[in-house]
Amino acid sequence: MSDQIDGGLRSELQRQGIWVTSMEELYNWGRKNSIWPLQFGLACCAIEMIATAASRYDIARFGGEVFRPSPRQADLMIVAGTVTKKMAPQIVRLYNQMPDPKYVISMGACAISGGPFKQGYNVLKGIDRYIPVDVYIPGCPPRPEALLHAFMELQRKIDSQKLTGNAKAEHLDPMQPSEFPVPAFGAHDLEPAANPRLFQPPKIERS
Amino acid sequence: MTMESLEQIKTRVEAAVPGAKIDIIPNPGPAQQSSLLIDNEHAAAVAKFLRDDSALRLDFCSNATGVDWLDRTVKKTVKVKKIVDGEEKEIDETTEEFFPGYLEAVYHLYSMTHKHGPVIIRMRTADRAENARLPSLTPVYRSAEFQEREIFDLYGVRFDGHPDLRRILMWDEFVDYPMRKDYREPDDYEYEPTPHDDVLEKAKMHYSARPQLDGAENITAQS
Hints:
By secondary structure, chain A is an alpha/beta fold. Helices cover 30% and strands 8% of the residues of chain A. In chain A, strands 1-2-3 form a three-stranded parallel beta sheet. In chain A, strands 4-5 form a two-stranded antiparallel sheet. The radius of gyration of chain A is 19 Å and the shape is globular. Chain A starts with 6 loop residues before the first helix and ends in a 16-residue tail after the last strand. Chain B is extended, with a radius of gyration of 26 Å. The A-B interface holds A 85-86, 119, 121-122, 125, 185-189, 193, 201-207 and B 169-176, 178, 183, 185-186, 188, 190-193, 199, 204, 207-211.
């Protein structure tokens, strides 16, 4: 907006009762202030998420209080807690069932990387192996303030998304996938162990 | 009212259940919680006696868990007096005893009626392979159902007489028993930012060799 109209002129007009905006700004303003999260929790991080939704921290101030019990009505998936390998296919399936545009917050050490259970036999080493993640929150568990910060970061991201042009948001590109393959239960591990389109292990060189 | 000692329980059980054979496994640790090793054939009858006996009334099985014992050799050194070259000398004699591995199920029993417990009972399988079977105590203690499923899932003990023996934590397609001491986890150590100990050894197999040093590592911060 700022590149199309002079900021001083805009505030002068606003003082006279005229509000100048763009379709994109209005559309993103509406989207970012009514993010409905999917109502599910996996471990202790979910307790912090519940605290965030309750009166003391009150995520309703940011328009995110309507936790939906159905993925069909949700905009945001907060992966709050340890993702076991038995649970991971169900998480991917829930993500696939959410309509576009959809966003993912990976909350806590376990959802990011497996956390303290990284070397365990039953814990996924990060949900970003199967679904794309928008905001990561470190912590074990992260405090409600951290979740609110992540929520505001997500609002900032939504606000900056373009609706047209080459740099438009991914969900508006018909070539971008909105569903991802659900891993199968293998004899020793999930198959495949990661989606290679989403996750490539960083190359570490060590002597 | 204090509970009778394990010796008294053993004597009474062996009198009440004909053919039952019970060993007392001492626990020399600080807990001092010795346990009763019951034979598999009479396990259900023994458990029923422990539950229904009016003095014991162990009506609550609070916990059932598994233990994996690998094959082990125990070395014992005994000082023996022997006559060597016509002279009596004290010589250390080392004997090795081999114990084949087995799996164990341990149950902690309490009494809600008399407010006493725990009485700990154990059962042992014949081996760690195809004879890893035990009688289920679920018909006696309903609360053991899920915990016996967990022992089956993680240790691979098959419980005869269990009403619904399936995996409970791992998925049905899983083939290993992950809590066994010789379990080897799948090798997915391609990305370990801070590996250590045996994880470091495994992770090293995935690392490429360090490139030629360019001297930058010798530069130190200037004060």
